[in-house]
Amino acid sequence: MARRQQPVIAVDRSASNSLRTVVRWHPILGWSEEQVWKRIAESGVRYHWAHDAGMERLSCSLCVLATQKDLVLAARLRRPLAAEYAEAEKRMGHRFQAARSIASVLAEADALNAEFGPVTWQRGDALRRHLGEAYARSYLALAA
């Protein structure tokens, strides 16, 4: 079931049994991306640096569910790991994703690094991208 179709609160029947009832609660399920970033900015809660580096979502560094953009960025940020994945892919004779190989992702990442240099970022860049400089400044002052 798609995330947006899930109820905010529901019993997880697959994880529940006669001894326990597991309830899944998704309090921000209906929030927009802007609402999430505003809450982060206003609370001063520390978020993961990979958002500042440009990652749209976080899970495994090189996640099979990631977009091409996030995969290429992850390979730029963690080239040795991407190279290990490419070697494993070669040994197994199986592609990382049906539509792309990690070797092709790594080649694109290497080309971008050669043209533009390594990825650089500053704390607050994610807030700058999502909400603007004023929110980033306010957050950085609050989180300091």
Topology:
Layout: E1 9-11, E2 23-25, H1 33-43, H2 49-53, H3 68-77, H4 79-92, H5 102-116, H6 125-131, H7 133-143
Helix pairs in contact: 1-7, 3-4, 3-5, 4-5, 6-7
Structure write-up:
By secondary structure, the chain is mostly helical. The protein is built from seven helices and two strands; from the N terminus they run E-E-H-H-H-H-H-H-H. A two-stranded antiparallel ribbon has the order 1-2. The protein is flat, with a radius of gyration of 19 Å. The model has no long low-confidence stretch (mean pLDDT 93).
Main traits of this protein?
144 residues, mainly alpha, 7 helices
Radius of gyration: 19 Å
How much of the sequence lies in strands comes to: under 5%
Determine the number of helices (DSSP H or I, runs of at least 4 residues): 7
Structural class: mainly alpha
Number of strands: 2
**Within the largest sheet, what's the order of strands?**
1-2
> Unreliable runs, pLDDT <50, ≥5 residues?
none
Distance between the termini: 40 Å
Please, what is the average pLDDT? 93
Q: What's the main sheet like?
A: 2 strands, antiparallel
Order of helices and strands: EEHHHHHHH
How would the global form be characterised?
flat
Provide the helix percentage: 40-55%
